Structures are given as structure tokens and as C-alpha cells.
Amino acid sequence: MFSALTRTNVLQLRSLLHRCQSTLVVAEHENGKLTAITLNAITAATKVGGEVSCLVAGTDCSTVAEQISKVQGVKKILVAQHDCYKGLLPEELTPLILASQSQFNFTHICAGASAFGKNLLPRVAAKLDVAAISDIIEVKSQDTFVRTIYAGNALETVKSSDSVKVFTVRGTSFEPAPTEGGSAASEQVTPPPPVGVSQWIEQNVTKSDRPELTSAKVVVSGGRGLKSGDNFKLLYDLADTMNAAVGASRAAVDAGYVPNDLQVGQTGKIVAPELYIAVGISGAIQHLAGMKDSKTIVAINKDPEAPIFQVADYGLVADLFKAVPEMTAALKK
Q1: Predicted local confidence at residue 1, as pLDDT
Q2: How far apart are alpha carbons 216 and 151 in whole angstroms?
Q3: pTM over the 0.85 mark
Q4: CB within 8 A of 255, min separation 6: which ones?
Q5: Contact at 8 Å (CB) between 296 and 256?
Q6: Over the stretch 235-251, which tens digit does the pLDDT of each residue have?
Q7: Structure confidence by residue, pLDDT tens digits, 304-318
Q8: What is the mean pLDDT of the chain?
């Protein structure tokens, strides 16, 4: 009798703790459109259990708030509008998150592991005097997470005893939350006074008719083996025949072949397309961290000992300057 009663009490306590959990997802958005990685972060937040809220800050948040209201799993939307949130500067968003935390007492705060999230949440964690856990790939329980370390080449299980768990979510590890079927209510929050230590001036974005790198189903990436920026035209031609996005290794970016917004890797963008074609890329750990979750990986390199072949599903040891044009010509037929 005593044993059965104890098990019942434990189950009731677990259920109560589950209901007491509450997670704040800091929404990332641009030009009135919710960024895809926020949907992955919402999925991770639902696995924590309890109520999921989203914080939307900006100068005009109505469109983004409406998008989030339809996302399954979101209970409440906190909307903060002020000119100081133009560009989503972390210096201005941090006091807003701290004010929201003081009011609602969330047990978890998360965002996508993009440049936005990695720039913002460590600041928040420092102000809360808790640890920031980066690159979460699995939520095992309310206080236990699995994350990537060593440029994504190893996994680590982290158990946190902090009163508030602050973490960023690796987007490729979680399915995006469904964007239909939700019915979250919006609530306006009063922004704290602007900090005023930084100012958003402008953003210059490279425009392309090709798919966006982080959401493309096919990605063609080039490395130092292309030898020059002009030779990236070989990849652009191949990508256009496949409706693919074009990426690059850090070595190619550092060499000035292409702009850094094409960089794939631990310090660049994280991608997980259906097909990833690595051309002239040696396969350094830093690069593998950004694309190893791709469904199918094809490598083209003249060096048979290149590390990229260790993760590739298909490998072609060949001169890329001959192989790529032949592929492009074959696809055009």
C-alpha cells in the first residue's frame, strides 16, 4: 500500500512540475516575416513542457504577431513595439527580456542558434547570472539537454540546476512547428527605457533569385579548390539547373572568393538540405558542423584523402573544373 501510494504521489508531483514549466521563445524576424529557425525553437520549447510564449519586438510587429498566433504550441504572444528595436539590437532587447522575465517568471528562455540568438541570449544569461547553453539538439527533460561541442563533432549532455534555463536551439535538429492550427492571444508589453548605446544604421543584403541558403532543399558549396571568385560561376551555373542555393567554406570566404553571407559552418550558417554538393572543399571540422545533417552529401575533390569523403554518401575523385561543367551540361539535357 505504501509503495503504491508513493508512486502515485511521485506521478502527481511530476505532473504538477510539468504544468509549472513556462518557456519564452524570443522570435527572430525580418521585413515583417518570421524567420524559419524560430519555428524550430518553438518545437524545442514544447518539448520542455508547460506553456510556451513568444516575445516579438520591433517597430511594427502586427504581421509577425499574426503569423505566430497561428503556430501550434504557442499559448501567448508578448508584443513590444518601439523605434529602439529597429534591427533587433541585442543591447536593446536584453533589458526587454529581463523585464519580461521579471514579470512572468519563465523557467526557460530560448531562441534559435543563429547569429541573432547567439548574440542575444548569452547577454541575457549573464544578466540573470545563469549559464547559457548553446546549440541544443535534444531536450531530454526540463533540466537536461544535449548539445553539440567541438565544432559539432561531439555531443554533450548538460543538466542545469539554474533557476532559469537559457539556451539556443540548433534549427536542423528540430522539426519546424506547424504554422496552422494555433490560436495564441497577443498581449502588448511596455518597453523599458531605451539603452541608447548603439544605433541601427542600415543593412545591405545580397539579392539573389536563388533559394535562401538555410531553407534550400539543394545546396551547392565551393571551397578553396575553386581558386578564385570568378570560378564560382561554375557553381552558379550548376545551382541554376537544380534550383539550388550556393554556399561556401570558410576558406573560400576568407580568401575573398565570395561574401561571408554564403559561409556554411560553425561560424557561418547551419544547413540541412535534402542534397548537399561540396565542390573543392577539404572538409574541415568547422565546415562539417554546418552541413553534416544534410540528408545526402556528395563530394567532388581531386584529393582522395580529403576528410569530406568520410561524411559523404557519394564521392567523386576528379578535377572539379572538368566534373562540374559536365554535370551542368548533363542536367541541361
Answers
A1: 40
A2: 22
A3: no
A4: 224
A5: no
A6: 999 999 999 999 999 99
A7: 999 999 999 999 999
A8: 91
Predicted pLDDT of residue 148: 85
pLDDT of residue 266: 85
Contact 244, 218 (CB under 8 A): yes
Average pLDDT over residues 292-311: 95
Question: What integer is the mean pLDDT of 162-184?
Answer: 95
d(C-alpha 39, C-alpha 68), whole Å = 9
- SS3 for the chain is CHHHHHHHHHHHHHHHHHHHCEEEEECCEECCEECHHHHHHHHHHHHHCCEEEEEEEECCCHHHHHHHHCCCCCCEEEEEECHHHCCCCHHHHHHHHHHHHHHHCCCEEEEECCHHHHHHHHHHHHHHCCCEEEEEEEECCCCEEEEEECCCCEEEEEECCCCCEEEEECHHHCCCCCCCCCCCEEEECCCCCCCCCCCCCCCCCCCCCCCCHHHCCEEEEECHHHCCCHHHHHHHHHHHHHCCEEEECHHHHHCCCCCHHHEECCCCECCCCCEEEEECCCCCHHHHHHHCCCCEEEEEECCCCCHHHHCCCEEEECCHHHHHHHHHHHHHC
Domains of the chain, CATH where assigned: 20-188 (3.40.50.620), 213-332 (3.40.50.1220)
Per the structure block, which three cell numbers stand in for 239? 545551382
